[in-house]
Amino acid sequence: MGGQLLLNEPLSRHTSWRVGGPADRYYEPAGRDDLVEFVRGLPASEPILWIGLGSNLLVRDGGVRGTVIALHGALETLERHGDAGIHAEAGVHCARMAKYATGEGLAGAGFFAGIPGTVGGALAMNAGAHGGETWNHVSEVEVLFRDGRSAWLPRSEFRYGYRHVEWPQGMVGFLAARFGFAPDSTGTAAQDMKQWLARRKATQPVGKPSAGSTFRNPPGDHAARLIESCGLKGHRIGGAQVSELHANFIITDEGARAADVEALIAQVRGIVQEKTGVELIPEVKVVGEVA
After folding, report:
1. Among residues 18, 32, 163, 178, which one is catalytic?
2. Residue-wise over 178-192: b if at least 16 C-beta within 10 A, else e?
3. Which CATH number does 78-190 carry?
4. Which string of b and e fits 137-172 if b means at least 16 CB within 10 Å?
5. CB-based contacts of 45: which residues, under 8 Å, 6+ apart?
6. Which class for 62: exposed (0-12), middle (13-18), buried (19 or more C-beta within 10 A)?
């Protein structure tokens, strides 16, 4: 193997909340072929957790049993595909793809600049921002199976909805995707993206440890509005706090524990449901064991 295998690696080093216990095994592949061989060599019963930038993920303080595979820094090919398409490997930062696509004169990719993760993570959860969603632009994806086989599958092989994707049986992860966009006929795509990023910087706690949006937006409403209406901006448990800038973001202080974040998520959900009757659904994925 050409990659790096670490034992008992603290996942607080690799998640955007900067919390989380150790992974039994943490692997950073050297590239695509190295990744395929590594997965092929794992026991069939070995749990696998894939991470990119560690956003949209809460790892509990007891850590993760099995193997964590980190793709960011390994699968980073990004290139034009056809007249109005982009080929991106799973480790490519979404913001990088947005900038590349607009630079290539394509429209419709700017919303990816608002997704704080990688292409692989965006595919796994149908991530979105500014009204755009990942799978609306997917034409086909390259996937990896447990036995090391890979295959290109059309979008029709997947069922997806708001922040949700169902995978074919036997598949363990995404290797790459091809996206379709439209020519930037008005010449405004780059400017639109700059405006979205400026609005994001002004309205979200950019630069502070968070995992992006904590809750899904309920139909016809916004989680942030509901949380703020309950007076929860700034509410804190331990080292975790509801952002004063954007109520759907939870930020962490140095020394925070995953248990603080999880408890705050539960408390916010309970208060919002009690006061508004709306049940907020977490957007973040919670994994691992309680310490």
Report:
1. 163
2. bbbbeebeeeebbeb
3. 3.30.465.10
4. bbbbbbbbbeeeebeeeebeebebeebebebeeebb
5. none
6. middle
- So where are the chain's domains? 4-70, 78-190, 205-287
142, 213, 243, 262: which is the annotated catalytic residue?
A: 213
Is the domain spanning 205-287 CATH 3.40.640.10? The answer is no
CA distance 124 to 119: 9
pLDDT tens per residue, the chain (291 residues)? 689 999 999 999 999 999 999 999 999 999 999 999 999 999 989 999 999 999 999 999 999 999 999 998 889 999 999 999 999 999 999 999 999 999 999 999 999 998 989 999 999 999 988 888 999 999 999 999 988 899 999 999 999 998 899 998 889 999 999 999 999 988 888 888 888 888 888 888 988 999 999 999 999 999 999 999 999 999 999 999 999 999 999 999 999 999 999 999 999 999 999 999 999 999 999 999 998
- CATH 3.10.20.30 for domain 4-70, yes or no, is no
Which of 9, 140, 142, 283 is catalytic? The answer is: 283
163 an active-site residue? yes
| 205-287 has the same fold as 4-70 | no
Whole-model pTM: value is 0.91
